[in-house]
Amino acid sequence: MLRWSIATVSMGGTLEAKLAAVARAGFRAVEIFENDLTFFSGKPRDVRARAEDLGLEIIGLQPMRDFEGMPEPLRSRNFDRAERKFDLMEELGTRFLGMCSSTSEDAAPDVERAAADLADLADRAAQRGFRLGYEALAWGRYVKDWMQAYELVCLADRPNLGVVLDSFHICVNKNPLAPLADIPASRIGLVQLSDAPGILMDPMSLSRHHRCFPGQGDHPVAEFLDAVMKTGYNGPVSLEAFNDQFRGAPAAQIARDGMRALQIAGETLDRTRVEQGLPALHIGADLPSASRIRGIEFVEFASASSGPDSFVDLLQGLGFVRVARHRSKDVDLYRQNGLNIVVNREQEGFAYSFQLLHGTSMCALGLRFDNPEAALERANALGAPTYFGRIGPGEALIPAVAGIENSLIYFMGERDGPRSNWDRDFVFETQEANGLLTTFDHFSNVLRRSEFLSWMTFYKSVLGLVNDPQVEVADPYGAFYSRVIRSPDGSVRIPLNIADGGSTAVSRFIDAFGGSGVQHIALETGDLFTFVEQAVARGVKFLDIPDNYYDDLSSRFDIEPALLARMRALDILYDRNKTGEFFQIYTATFENRFFFEVVERRGYDLFGAANTPVRLAAQVAEQERAGM
Amino acid sequence: MLRWSIATVSMGGTLEAKLAAVARAGFRAVEIFENDLTFFSGKPRDVRARAEDLGLEIIGLQPMRDFEGMPEPLRSRNFDRAERKFDLMEELGTRFLGMCSSTSEDAAPDVERAAADLADLADRAAQRGFRLGYEALAWGRYVKDWMQAYELVCLADRPNLGVVLDSFHICVNKNPLAPLADIPASRIGLVQLSDAPGILMDPMSLSRHHRCFPGQGDHPVAEFLDAVMKTGYNGPVSLEAFNDQFRGAPAAQIARDGMRALQIAGETLDRTRVEQGLPALHIGADLPSASRIRGIEFVEFASASSGPDSFVDLLQGLGFVRVARHRSKDVDLYRQNGLNIVVNREQEGFAYSFQLLHGTSMCALGLRFDNPEAALERANALGAPTYFGRIGPGEALIPAVAGIENSLIYFMGERDGPRSNWDRDFVFETQEANGLLTTFDHFSNVLRRSEFLSWMTFYKSVLGLVNDPQVEVADPYGAFYSRVIRSPDGSVRIPLNIADGGSTAVSRFIDAFGGSGVQHIALETGDLFTFVEQAVARGVKFLDIPDNYYDDLSSRFDIEPALLARMRALDILYDRNKTGEFFQIYTATFENRFFFEVVERRGYDLFGAANTPVRLAAQVAEQERAGM
Lengths: 628, 628
Description:
In chain A, helix 4 runs parallel beside helix 5 (111-127), helix 5 (111-127) packs across helix 6 and helix 11 runs parallel beside helix 15 (449-461). In chain A, a hairpin with a 6-residue loop joins strand 20 (478-486) and strand 21 (493-499).
């Protein structure tokens, strides 16, 4: 039966904790990596009992290394070694042993001999009812490639010996994937899945430290799975990711991420198959189908700030108008054209707690979906439970799921739909809220490196967003990485900025904010220059940009002197690419944590990353002036 | 004049702070990276004034990118851009502009045209008294290699245009180095130095994130410098290291490390030249010559522990005998054969402070040198000032330099020499201190990743140690890196273990210890089995090793069953390689931080890294049992 599995090596901690996490994430099958047993203080039969209690099938033990093609006396010793692994398998209650191609300098480059060794071992395994799988390591001494491993399996020709198809080794070798579909299913021992970032690194280092789950990297895992499933293979499909970050994270989180990654991989596979006229395979439970994001209904800020220079002063300076107050709570609605910002200054409840932890900060996001009920059902099926929140008392509860640092993401319908009456308990003072800002352009999430892949999988699976390639950004005190996640319609765009410790600005935000969070919101306008002039007149302070930036700009681009002078006077930054021009400005940082960006796009569809270093340096200077 | 320089891009922080750090480290010359100016809030002439105040010559501005071979109108714009850089140079007071080969898709693959562009720009530069240097980036669009850059420079044939020889691009391309010696010095614009780890990674990523200082990586920098200096080049030699860790560290530390790295590079260069019958060049001040380390005189522990299970109980359990007490202080001398361990339980002074910060810990190391005065003079010349300590009052002061976390490294002479009478104020109770332990085998230093290169340069320059290649070690919660540093005679060996954040055992040591430190000391014996039996009888608790380890061991090695059973009974670990066998055991962890290892070497010269994962897993289990 086709089923999802995960190898214990993909997680950190003790073997007992790994098994519990795997079961809780919804897996029914697990591969045991032998080191986990070696370090386990109990007996292998204790592992078997624990797995049975948890409803987990142990689908295999791995790996047997450096077996084939060895000279005597190493060859005989290898058979003895295998017998001891068979004993261990008996105790574990598993029937499958994973082997990988030899990396030993003692191995002979003799195909016939290697195949004979595999055949002999398969015969011994058969006597005990065991099956063997043989996998090509990309850095194997002679067998580096699935075709070579498959050739040995065919030469050995034993019914209980199959090739292990591991997506990592096949994709890292850039093997064509379509030929995999021609392998007879009976010759496949096991299918293993992982992804990896598209960086140039020797395959062994990449494999040992940077493997990740499908959809978290750049390998064509979907295409691999599609090809392999055309063979009619009907056994376990097992995640195997060696990753230092995974091993440093809680096993429960990694197991859940793995299951989410597999669920969307299975969904993609079945969609592709149906498009090709093939039957869906339904590996694991089917997901409720995705609902499209249609836009942002509102953004909610928790704030304790009041008086002059308060957060609402900043909002008003940016042209937002307080259009309504909540009937009974200290909750106001600010609006500008179609943009709603709720400011919650209640002294109890969710927003209050959030603000205690993080200061003035974005604590919730209301997203409009085509079908919010279906979107929520899907989120639940992906292991994201429903929380209910309400903007004010007496309101209908709005369902939400937890986003970064337990901020809330509300699932709402189209305006005027049943779940979109969140503002009915507001007393409107005006409906006039025009201004120059028209769109929420993007929200930057600042994340710890150890959380990045986890949230990427969350956004891609639970919210159905898609990702751009990763870029790196220089920082006055180091460097950080950034990857943009966006909804297919482009209405929600989230650059994920990844802090790698040290004293980069991104890391310092995490320290100041007390964790991950939204560091800034970018708003779009059709006329940035007029907007800035009005905002300055209303008292908004923008980030000081050094004069030298404009001198440098003038040497990089041909810009009208008058325009350049205006940018210099207003502290507006500039970028240009083949599609168009981009103007952007940043407010001074609020509470040393949060800022707004305002952008004007003239056909430009990126985020001005070229200006991030100057923005960061200016923010460092701002902090130093403030004596931070 | 030949002189050392450093590029501002090698450090983090503001430009003002970088210049101050560079001057303090003893540099008299600096290269300005243009981004530092762009982010600087003052005027370029303020930078000039600051540099002059600090006695720093600004040897150049860099880089001018994407200049040569561009079509119109980009070509004309590039000349305008260059004129603006010339204006900037005028304000900065520098005469040299560094250019790098174009990476632009718009550039034409036309050698004549590129050379003509360089010639034209050199002519314009000449009018203002400027010189140009042209450097091949390894990822340049057409010019990727110093030979191509040199060809363009020869074709352009202008007296104020030279090739920039950057060791990184040349070494990363694996160019032969000897041909560099044939370049006429007049064609060399600038020499730049950096090192890089020998990892397989695309050259641009390696360059942007992992460059380091000479001797910190694996590039043949000494050979490069030797070849280049044979040209008769007589200008600045400038460090240029792009490194996230450097930019995250204090600029003063990085500038000092850079100067140390250059000082030993210059020393190596001159030694090589003298061996070749060439005159020494004396770039920078000459270092006093190195003195050889002859061994370890004593190790000092600071401890507040007393009563049963105290640290001295552990020492006595390991066979150390209290041979002497200090005349007036709470300081005891424990001895076993030639091994001296001083235990300092004073309630004031250096050891007391150290113990407050770190708990029971090794606070000092007494090293014997051939010529301790010369060794100290050299340390001072390398920016490591002398501290004076004394083991007890009335003692001669013993000079020391600061090691990790300000532990002390005493510089002592041969036994019975003038600086080795540190024990004369001890009242000896016995001279009988025999036992099975014979040697300090090694000391493990646990370091934050951001400190690793800095301490490597310290050990190599100040103490004259040499390094082994880097290895990686799996950890139950991640992975860490390790590199062994040793004295040329092998008497001092220090594995540097590098924590990369997260929850690895190495990182947790840093948290528990309150910083970097010596996590364990390994002692050697000729008979580990008898030693362990005696120690157990004296009450020493050793780390529990899981039974499964021995099952696994028996499948990996052919070991006599009786020997295996004895190892299993005593918790002794085992390794074997082509040179011999290795037995090792760890004590239970003291105060959740420190432990001893005892090893028996039968022709084996490594450190049993294959057993480190099982040791770490066993220590995690030990912590969990203790409820940590």
